[in-house]
Amino acid sequence: MPLKRVTEFKYLGHTVTEDLSDVNDIERERRALAVRCNMLARRFARCNMDVKLTLFKAYCQTFYTCSLWVTYTQRAYSDLRVQYNNGFRTLMGLPRYCSASLMFAEAHTDDFYAIMRKRAASVMHRMRESSNSILKTLVENGGNPFMKHWVHLHMHSRCFINGRYCHY
Predict the structure, then answer these.
(1) Which domain of life is it from (predicted)?
(2) Looking at the domain assignment, is residue 69 inside a domain?
(3) What are the beta bridge partners of residue 11?
């Protein structure tokens, strides 16, 4: 029986493309985040800030399969970060152009980059604790190309200064 050729498919909720780019999966997550944030903002507009913050943490900080993202554009990643920030502003009733770092600090909640670092650290921890010999081999040798690339993408903080991304 002939197999149907597709350019992308979903596997366990993660969008896999023929070129192995994660841009489509990041866009899927950005759209889902927008829907969740707008739904929360509409349904819980009259709730107090503590309730809204609890809902935001439960429904908007998941980023399912984000630890698998390896090949993507800065644009796609930035669009997701902006959606996260704007969703928080909308839910909390904050002005559109208020400082993202200040609003998260005042709310005592994680910003986008902190969430991504925590997700990556969680995956790294599970790989180290795994009984799977292939996973153990990957994480035990931090100098292998896969680990260098993955750690560079997921574990470094990023900042935007003078129109470009910096790593620290």
Answers:
(1) Eukaryota
(2) yes
(3) 14
| The pLDDT of residue 156 | 57
Q: Which domain holds residue 24?
A: 8-167
% the chain with pLDDT above 70: 88
Q: What are phi and psi of 12, to 5 degrees?
A: 50, 40
Structure tokens at 162: 């003078």
Q: For the chain, which residues score pLDDT lower than 70?
A: 142, 145-146, 150, 153-168
Question: The tokens of 31 are what?
Answer: 């759209």
Residue 151 placed within a domain: yes
Can you give the pTM of this predicted structure?
0.82
Report the largest interatomic distance among the alpha carbons of the chain, rounded to a whole angstrom: 60
**Cβ neighbours of residue 23 under 8 Å, at least 6 residues apart?**
17, 71, 72, 73, 76
Contact indicator for 56, 40 with CB cutoff of 8 Å: yes
Does 3 map to a domain? Answer: no
Identity (one letter) of the amino acid at 51?
V
Q: What percent of the chain has a predicted confidence (pLDDT) above 90?
A: 58
